[in-house]
Amino acid sequence: MTGCVRPACGADCVDPPMSEVSTTRYLTRAVQLTVALTVGAVFIAVCSSVPGPGRAGRGSWAQHKASRWVLRAVGVRLSVHGAPRSGPSLVVGNHVSWLDILALSASAPMRMVAKSEVARWPLIGRSAARTGTLFLERKRLRELPQAVADMTAALRSGSRVQVFPEATTRCGGALDRFHRAPFQAAINAGVVISPVTVQYLDGDDAGITSAAFVGDETLASSVRRVLRTPRTTVQVHWLRPIPAIAGTGRDHVDRARVAALAQNAVARNLGLPVRRPDGVAAVPTVGRVLGPDGVRALAG
């Protein structure tokens, strides 16, 4: 699907697995997933039950452990290259699947920024709330300043905060332009940005789209497809941190610049084009400031 630059990915962007596991193996994985989710939820609840300033940190650590259990239960192998910078940072990367959250959390403890719908998912929603997840109402733009303020507060408290700046999932054939607002939180808190990429591979290390969660598909159907896939590896690559340092005195310029730098770093690592609003696939280049009144955020 390389080069898929349509405005939104749909069911036709996702290829079914070349082969499927046996019914017995599928049912075994389904049972393992139920057990892992239940045990993980209890573990998170216990670790985050003690009130105090370290509650979110304990919850994030518990989620880090539980995410590894869930990935193992659904038959997904985790391969991590590099590591995020220690201390607070804004973690940003591409978004393909609900598995992204598990993969990133399994690679390092962090607080997630998730769409408000996640709060209503069985077991997962309540556990996410206990780990300090910041829920965002994507369709209510007037709440965006408060969301940025919450992210800033979490970063200043020493947390690692993860957000998907594309604000949607794609099949993995192209990258959507990164929204700039989340990067303001990093600038406000004076922390680095940690770009990261997530890729899904089969048993032969070839890219697959069966793990993608796009379009109008339900979570249940996506989970079933993952359970039926014989071998899936999720590969996480941590890239060089980007300092979120304000240099122009204009917030909108600074966040545009660091958003472009992060976006291009992710696109280059994945070897993907960036989808422009006009639907043209663009080769990522480095953003640069063009003077006191603006920025050329070159995403191609």
From TrEMBL:
Assigned keywords, A-Z: Acyltransferase, Lipid biosynthesis, Lipid metabolism, Transferase
One Pfam assignment: Acyltransferase
GO biological process: phosphatidic acid biosynthetic process
SMART domains: PlsC
Pathway: Lipid metabolism
Residue ranges occupied by any Phospholipid/glycerol acyltransferase domain in the UniProt entry: 89-201
Record bears the keyword Transport: no
Example of a GO MF term: 1-acylglycerol-3-phosphate O-acyltransferase activity
SUPFAM superfamilies reported in the protein's UniProt record: Glycerol-3-phosphate (1)-acyltransferase (SSF69593)
TM helices/strands, residue ranges: none
PANTHER family hit by this protein: 1-ACYL-SN-GLYCEROL-3-PHOSPHATE ACYLTRANSFERASE (PTHR10434), 1-ACYL-SN-GLYCEROL-3-PHOSPHATE ACYLTRANSFERASE-RELATED (PTHR10434:SF64)
Identification of the protein by name: Acyltransferase
